[in-house]
Design brief:
The chain is α+β, with helices and mostly antiparallel strands. Among the domains are: about 300 residues, YVTN repeat-like/Quinoprotein amine dehydrogenase (Methylamine Dehydrogenase, Chain H, 7 Propeller), CATH 2.130.10.10; about 100 residues, Immunoglobulins (Immunoglobulin-like); about 180 residues, Hypothetical protein af1432. The chain contains 16 helices and 67 strands. Strands 1-27-26-25-24 form a 5-stranded mixed β-sheet, with no helix packed on it. Helix 6 packs antiparallel against helix 7. The chain is flat, with a radius of gyration of 42 Å. The termini are far apart. The N terminus and C terminus are likely disordered.
Length: about 1000
């Protein structure tokens, strides 16, 4: 043992032999959006002691407050026996090679999730394994569990103790399994236990670790076991436990390593009480600075899309989502200031702010020199590099225009040198090599470092505040001003002034850009974009409203694209399409993509040589490569969180059977994509009910509802696309069946009964006259049976609607009386009577809750009620030998003027039988007492029939009805009538 200690001392002491460099690293977090989830943000806890992700895409969090599941929008807590989980806390999470989730608890042992249910492992040690600290799986597939009472292995659904000799009841902090068949464990006392073949083979004590305790273990290929120590350092041991090859890896200024983790890019992460850090592929140590979690970090996890999740035992859960924009100011540790201009020069960045000039090197480190010192606190508005390599810096200060010469040294140009003002806004290099400068007092032309010409009020520049400058192919110079429009210099003289009178909406010209291909000038007035042709015509360019609001800059992109920079971000489209005035497709990158503030008005933004675009904002500098934007290469995962039926919830259902009484179905959907959730789009459809699929954003997917589904079988299908347009590989499908109601089940029997009765009736008519007398009695019997059957069906319909007792029979009698007065034959009267008798058969398919509602129907309920006419036509559609029956049911609510419902038929397009039934139906409706009004008197009824002739009713039929009522030939049933049938009724 002493030999081993001496060997370790000689090998482990020189920590600097392992390459590591400790320096704060803001660069990593500059590409991520930080979201802290805790008690205040809805997580329900301020601690996250372990994190993992199951194959279905859910994020799981072990918390002292219970087991939590996160879907990107809301948390589901498991702590009260839900689905079999009977523990008040969770301490450790583990996903085995079969994809099962294992949960170690503080108070109730070990659970495994199988499907949507949890199962507890029995404890053969009678409670010794209640507090689980670690879980691992060896090469054979066995699950080892580290607890406060020793090490256990899962056997036949229970926990059995692993014999450790004198270490049997040792409290275990962590367990890891290596490729060599060994199981490693770190104890609370700081020892490392090494097991092989289920037996304890070796113990490494803190004394052999330089006096430090082992706190966590992590197996890292190829063949190295890493142990995090209380000192903050890491011990690397060959997996075959050959300790002569052990090495220390230094983690400067870190204490108490809690966990180690290797991400998909090969970075080795270190989580500790001092914060987080990582070793890159070259084993350089990078301490991550600027994180919202700066201490007590327990673990880190990378999800299937490459986003990071960090858990803290004190502060909650930190989610790092990859941003489209990189926060360059954060990476550089620049003060949060308004950035006005940026210029990439070779590998450096020149950044102009309201607080001075900043220069960044390729490693995102700020440089300090005499120039930055001289400009500290000065407002830098524009930075431009000319073709000779000189850098021109426009300031709003006593320094005026500063030129940083390529050869070294600086030149300052102020009013003393002929500049119109020392408040310089911009410079532009002209084609002849001159420099044009715009100031608050006019414009100047600089040649060879001297002002050779200036333009002010005397030279015709009525508005002297110059905001933008450009030059066309004919060497004409355009000066855009703050309120005076555009002044055009031709042959050194101002010749034209383009203003609102020429078609602009404003005389404020924020930006101009010459178009070589089309020979014109793009112009932004702030709220609108124009194209100024070489002939001088002003054309307004159509852009979407969000883009047109405050366009501060215009840039050309690759592949014929043009970029408009507005207050909300950048918007890219095809230049030719935009100029043509036709429909254009836009690609936008805005605040939700990672900008923390608005774009700086009238700022000067630029591309570098690698296609990265730098954007000036009111709270810093951001960058993006618009041609290479991609957050995730992984298709999103989707889930049906739960389906609630009339208040009863079903978690993650695969199938669902509903009773016939079910009214409301509410579906909670989740897109389990965490890369850029604002762009996720879900698509769903209830096949068998929906005609088309519906799309919705993340929040709208939480409450998809269906009410009063008819009985039958359905399939709910849910899919989604993420921010990168990738569609999920496996849409979720839920088979849903609903038991049919009594009013739905008998329909098929009714169809057969009606068809059979009418076939018998018509067959009897076809028998020869020679047998007529012999069959007459039989015919009368069948006719009576038919009448009884139809009357029974009509009675069943009326019985379903408590407000329509006897309605079908009365309408049939009124219709027969009208038909006789209209001269119909006896056969036609017979058919008319039965058609009227069954005109409301479609009400069999209307839910009782709507049919018998005492109050006013909602618009949705009224639409369902109106469907009874169409339903009636469908029910009777197979009765093809007597079309009048089907027509009466389907079209009795059509109006003569075409404003009825059903198909919106008009005039004589409506079957004659349906027009008669329409009048008869109205007569009974007016003559009958309802819940919302009393029966109408006869004069009022006659008046209504006459006034609606030609609109609601066929005028000829209405005239006959009015005549019969006036003469008393037709007596209406009502609460005040005797109930005897009217004269002549069939």
């Amino acid at each position: 043992m002493r030999k081993f200690c001496l060997c370790c001392f000689l090998i482990l002491l020189p920590l600097l032999l392992i390459p590591s460099a400790a320096f704060p690293n803001h660069l990593f977090l500059s590409r991520y959006r930080q979201t802290l989830l805790n008690l205040e943000s809805g997580m329900g806890a301020n601690n996250a002691v372990d994190i993992c992700q199951t194959e279905d895409g859910y994020i799981w969090i072990a918390s002292y407050s219970g087991l939590l599941r996160y879907d990107g929008t809301s948390f589901t807590r498991f702590s009260d026996g839900t689905n079999g989980y009977t523990a008040q806390s969770a301490r450790r999470l583990f996903i085995d090679r079969s994809g099962r989730l294992w949960i170690g608890t503080n108070d109730n042992g070990l659970f495994v999730m199988e499907g949507s249910r949890f199962r507890r492992m029995t404890d053969s040690a009678h409670g010794a394994f209640n507090s689980v600290r670690a879980i691992a799986q060896d090469q054979k597939g066995d699950i080892y569990v580290g607890t406060s009472g020793g090490i256990a292995v899962v056997v036949n659904g229970g926990l059995e103790r692993v014999a450790l000799g004198g270490h049997d009841s040792e409290s275990i902090l962590d367990i890891a399994c290596g490729a060599g068949g060994c199981v490693w464990a770190a104890t609370r006392g700081g020892d490392i236990l090494i097991l092989r073949g289920g037996r304890l083979k070796k113990v490494i004590t803190p004394n052999e670790l330089g006096g430090y305790k082992a706190r966590c273990l992590f197996y890292r290929s190829p063949g190295r076991m890493l142990a995090g120590l209380s000192s903050g350092n890491i011990l690397s041991i060959r997996d075959e436990d050959d300790l002569t090859d052990a090495k220390f890896i230094a983690t400067p200024k870190f204490e108490n390593v809690n966990s180690l983790y290797e991400d998909a890019e090969g970075r080795l992460w270190v989580c500790s009480d001092s914060g987080i850090a990582f070793f890159d592929k070259n084993m350089r140590f990078n301490r991550v600075s600027g994180a919202l979690l700066s201490d007590s970090v327990e673990n880190i996890f990378q999800d299937y899309e490459g986003q990071f999740w960090l858990g803290s035992s004190r502060h909650g859960l930190l989610y790092l989502s990859k941003k489209i924009f990189m926060d360059v100011g954060f990476a550089l540790l620049m003060p949060r200031s308004v950035v006005n201009a940026v210029l990439p020069v070779d590998e450096k960045l020149y950044i102009g702010t309201d607080d001075g000039l900043f220069i960044a090197d390729p490693n995102y480190k700020l440089e300090e020199n005499l120039l930055t010192a001289a400009l500290r606190g000065k407002r830098v508005r524009n930075i431009m590099r000319d073709s000779n390599g000189n850098i021109w810096i426009s300031t709003n200060s006593e320094l005026g225009l500063v030129c940083l010469k390529k050869s070294g040294g600086t030149v300052r140009l102020g009013k003393y040198a002929g500049m119109p003002s020392e408040n310089v806004r911009l410079t532009v290099e002209l084609k002849n090599g001159d420099i044009a400068a715009g100031t608050n007092g006019g414009a100047a032309i600089i040649r060879g470092g001297n002002v050779v010409r200036s333009y002010g009020a005397k030279e015709g520049l009525a508005n002297r505040m110059v905001l933008s400058i450009c030059e066309d192919a004919r060497n004409n110079i355009y000066l855009g001003t703050d309120g005076g429009g555009i002044f055009v210099i031709e042959n050194d003289v101002i010749k034209r002034n383009i203003t609102k009178g020429n078609g602009l909406d404003s005389n404020v010209i924020l930006r101009m850009l010459y178009d070589d291909e089309n020979g014109g000038v793009w112009v932004s007035t702030g709220n609108r974009i124009y194209f100024l042709t070489k002939e001088g015509w002003v054309h307004s360019i159509n852009t979407p409203v969000p883009i047109s609001s405050g366009v501060y800059d215009i840039k050309y992109c690759t592949h014929g694209k043009i970029m408009l920079i507005s207050d909300s971000g950048i918007h890219i489209t095809d230049r030719a399409e935009l100029l043509s005035g036709g429909a254009t497709k836009w690609k936008s990158f805005v605040r939700r993509d990672g900008l923390s503030g608005s774009v700086t008005p009238n700022s000067w933004n630029n591309f570098d040589s690698r296609g990265r675009f730098y954007l000036c904002c009111t709270e810093g500098l951001y960058s993006i490569n618009p041609d290479a934007v991609r957050i995730s290469n992984a298709p999103p995962k989707v889930a049906v969180n739960k389906i609630t039926v009339d208040g009863k919830a079903y978690e993650n259902p695969k199938t669902l059977r509903l009773p016939s009484s079910a009214k409301r179905l509410t579906i909670d959907l989740a897109v389990l994509s965490y890369a850029n959730p604002d762009y996720d789009v879900g698509e769903y459809m209830l096949k068998g009910f929906d005609e088309n699929s519906s799309t919705a954003g993340r929040q709208e997917l939480r409450n998809v509802s269906y009410t009063n589904l008819p009985g039958g079988k359905y399939t709910f299908v849910f899919t989604a696309k993420n921010a990168d347009g990738l569609e999920c590989d496996k849409p979720v499908k839920v088979a849903i069946s609903k038991q049919k109601t009594l009013s739905e089940e008998p329909l098929a029997i009714l169809y057969l009964l009606l068809l059979g009765l009418f076939l018998f009736f018509l067959l009897m008519q076809r028998f020869s006259r020679g047998r007529w007398r012999a069959l007459r009695r039989r015919y009368d019997e069948l006719h009576g049976a038919t009448a009884q059957a139809f009357t029974a069906i009509a009675g069943a319909v009326d019985a379903k609607d408590r407000y329509a007792r006897g309605h079908s029979s009365r309408v049939a009698e009124y219709a027969a009386a009208l038909g006789r007065a209209l001269g119909l034959s006896e056969e036609a009267l017979d058919k008319l009577y039965y058609a009227a008798l069954l005109h409301d058969v479609g009400k069999m398919g209307i839910p009782d809750s709507i049919l018998n509602k005492p109050g006013k129907l909602t618009p949705e309920e009224y639409n369902v009620m109106k469907s009874h006419a169409e339903r009636g036509g469908i029910i009777l559609r197979d009765v093809t030998l007597i079309d009048e029956i089907k027509s009466g049911a389907a079209f009795h609510h059509e109006r003569y003027d075409g404003k009825g419902y059903g198909r919106g038929l008009k005039g004589e397009e409506i079957p004659y039988v349906a027009r008669i039934i329409c009048v008869a139906d109205a007569l009974d409706a007016m003559a009958t007492k309802h819940a919302y009004r009393d029966a109408q008197d006869l004069p009022h009824i006659i008046s209504e029939i006459e006034s609606n002739a030609g609109s609601q009713f066929d005028p000829a039929i209405a005239a006959v009805a009015a005549r019969l009522l006036k003469s008393g030939e037709l007596t209406l049933f009502s609460d005040s009538y005797s109930g005897e049938p009217s004269p002549g009724a069939v």
